[in-house]
Design goal:
Keywords: Signal. The structure is a single chain. The chain has 184 residues and is an alpha/beta fold. It has one domain. It is built from three helices and eleven strands. A hairpin with a 2-residue loop joins strand 7 and strand 8.
């Protein structure tokens, strides 16, 4: 019952709405926070990277006609710059046209959070070592700031991504769909 009350409170405040601004969802986690492995929300989804530079939560905004190449990396074949976030694979999508989306660099996120000193970035609980990657702002579900505890000097910024569920089908299982004009 306690969880239901907390969930309804968070929904009413807009913290569980994945479409609200990522800036409103930055939270500060105390030094006694759970380990990064328990911060990760969806540990079975791959990381999607557009044009080897932009991290997105999924491919819902990509027009299939604009895709030039899709490469799925698993295991040891992941490029060195993405090895730290590849726990469940990396899907690299190269587009024919230049990607036009609102993105933020990791340095811009650190500046927006007004954090000084050494900072380490994580993507869904996995260390993000390549600081040249950019995050699409619509793909950010939330940001967790974990201040250093005693004996540590690095603040950790964990970026959580919006994950989409498959579109629901409106036809019961076993429905046969026929293309074409059946009236002729």
């Amino acid at each position: 019952m306690r969880y239901l009350w907390l969930t309804s409170l968070l929904l009413s405040l807009g913290y569980l709405n994945s479409w609200s601004s990522w800036a409103q969802q930055a939270t500060e986690v105390p030094a006694t926070a759970p380990t990064p492995d328990t911060v990760r929300h969806d540990n079975s989804s791959p990381v999607y990277v557009l044009n080897d530079r932009f991290i997105v939560g999924g491919l819902w905004d990509v027009v299939p006609a604009n895709i030039a190449e899709i490469v799925v990396y698993k295991g040891g074949e992941v490029p060195a710059r993405l090895r730290s976030v590849m726990s469940h694979g990396v899907v690299s999508v190269n587009l024919k046209k230049r990607f036009k989306g609102n993105t933020k660099s990791l340095a811009a996120i650190q500046q927006w959070l007004k954090l000084r000193g050494p900072v380490a970035f994580q993507l869904e609980g996995q260390p993000l070592e390549d600081t040249g990657l950019r995050i699409v702002t619509d793909a950010i579900a939330g940001i967790d700031v974990m201040r250093p505890s005693v004996g540590q000097s690095t603040t950790v910024i964990n970026i959580r991504l919006v994950r989409t569920n498959p579109r629901p089908t409106y036809h019961p299982p076993g429905t046969i769909m026929i293309r074409g004009n059946a009236s002729q």
